[in-house]
Amino acid sequence: METGLSGLVGRGLSAACGFRVFGPLRVAGIASRASHLHLAEGFAWMGSDAALIALSVATVLEIVAYYVPWLDNFLDSVATPAAVVAGTLITASMITDTEPFLKWTLAAIAGGGLAGVVQVGTVVTRGASTATTGGLANPVVATAELGSSVAASLLSLVVPLVVVITVVGVVGFGSVWYVRRQRQSPAPPRIAPAQTKS
């Protein structure tokens, strides 16, 4: 696979890690096993039986956990650093013929950074859902995140540039919307200081 295309695949899968941590790693492992992805040296273990079994179990547990009330919010605090690590790992697995220091630096910025930004977006969305619906709409949010992770993972193997552009566009739009909403929200009422009688 061409180096530039491999980088796009890595970024697309990294973005998918922002929605769900383990699923995209499992997709990469299966694609590697099927010789659709050519991983960098030292990452062949991702397509091994042991890795695929472990990733499959972790994927199922992660999916189920996000449908448990209040546990989903707790998982966000753990999933954020995990998504950054997974995004870094999966991008590094696609970078070949590069010095290790540069490779991991690029992977951390391009892959881990993108996964982290997407994950923060899901945290904000779930927080808003919990605050406005008492968590009743959280299963809908979880389903949307799961669907986004699956779609981004699979499409990254076919049209990675589309995935990266879409994710960056959605993140950019969401950021602008959030900033505008914060600016338009009414300021808290000011309490006048008590006047002392002379």
Radius of gyration, CA atoms, in whole angstroms: 20 Å
Discrete helix count: 7
Number of discrete domains: 1
SS strand fraction: under 5%
The shape, in one word, is globular
Structural class computed from helices and strand pairing: mainly alpha
End-to-end separation in angstroms reads 83 Å
Q: Portion of residues in helices?
A: over 70%
- Overall number of strands: 0
Overall pLDDT: 86
The poorly predicted ranges are: none
What does this structure look like?
- The protein is mainly α.
- The protein has one domain (3-183).
- It has seven helices and no strands.
- It has helices at residues 3-19, 22-33, 49-65, 71-92, 100-133, 138-156, 160-184.
- The chain starts with a helix and ends in a 14-residue tail after the last helix.
- The mean pLDDT is 86.
